[in-house]
Amino acid sequence: MNRTQIQFLGHATFKITTPEGKSIIVDPWLINNKFIPEEYKNQPKIDLMLVTHGHDDHFDNKIVDLIDQYQPKVIANSICRWYLLEEGVNSKLIEPLNLGGTISLLDVKVSMVNAFHLSHINITNTKIDYPHAANGYILQLSDDVRIYFAGDTSIFGDMKLIAEIYKPTIAVLPIGDRFTMGPLEASHAIRMLDVKHVIPFHYGTYPFLTGTPEELVKLTSDIEGLTIHALKAGEMLDCGNL
């Protein structure tokens, strides 16, 4: 049986390849993203897009074109979903989901969970609209890999409930600081989530994102069995090796 693979494309964009060979993109910023190696900007296929919020480093400003090109199923919070519908995206491609809900598709269970991060959608270079709160996702795959994608967020106490209910085996956490958790907050999130495998993201791309994996490793050195997978853009984590 094939195992789940997680590829860090760059900044905050990830690709999950399921055991059944389906391709899931989390936070699709693919066009004009200087942090993604050129060879990964044009994906051979996208079966599912998961959007955590509408900031343009997570929600491509050409996302409608991407959806038209790949015809994936799309899951997003209700504000981003209605934006896509208003922009003419086929409603048959969009799977409605809200906080606390779970949907099964493509042999994956997708749950939408809280995140604490204020967001909007850029309409032009000088105009924003569609204010909303961000969200995270839990992916439960057929090989029993359970991934918590926190999205952009601060730390919050209900991460303990996420651990208790969904029992993630891998947590994908922002560590850049300023706009999200930094390494200090992420180190406490790891303890609440009780995970042994962590993929940091949203750091080292812009000058003001100063958090580092090295600092996170230092702050969690007392957690027995923990591995911080500091993937470079384009690198892949084979979950069969965990």
Topology overview:
Elements (H helix, E strand, L loop, with lengths): L4 E6 L2 E5 L5 E4 L21 E3 L12 H8 L2 E3 L2 H9 L15 E4 L2 E15 L5 E13 L5 E4 L9 H8 L3 E5 L8 H11 L3 E5 L11 H7 L7 E2 L7 E3 L4
Parallel strand pairs: 3-4, 4-5, 9-10, 10-11, 11-12
Antiparallel strand pairs: 1-2, 1-13, 2-3, 6-7, 7-8, 8-9
Helix pairs in contact: 4-5
Pfam families: Lactamase_B_3
InterPro entries: Metallo-B-lactamas (IPR001279), RibonucZ/Hydroxyglut_hydro (IPR036866), UPF0173_UPF0282_UlaG_hydrolase (IPR050114)
Organism: Solitalea koreensis
Write up what this structure looks like.
The chain has a seven-stranded mixed β-sheet. It has a six-stranded mixed β-sheet with strand order 5-4-3-2-1-13, with no helix packed on it. The protein is built from five helices and 13 strands. The chain has one domain (5-237): Ribonuclease Z/Hydroxyacylglutathione hydrolase-like (Metallo-beta-lactamase, Chain A). Strand 4 (48-50), helix 1 and strand 5 form a beta-alpha-beta unit. The longest helix is centred in the last third of the chain and has 11 residues, at 183-193. It is of the alpha/beta class and 242 residues long. The protein has helices at 63-70, 78-86, 159-166, 183-193, 213-219, and strands spanning 5-10, 13-17, 23-26, 48-50, 73-75, 102-105, 108-122, 128-140, 146-149, 170-174, 197-201, 227-228, 236-238.
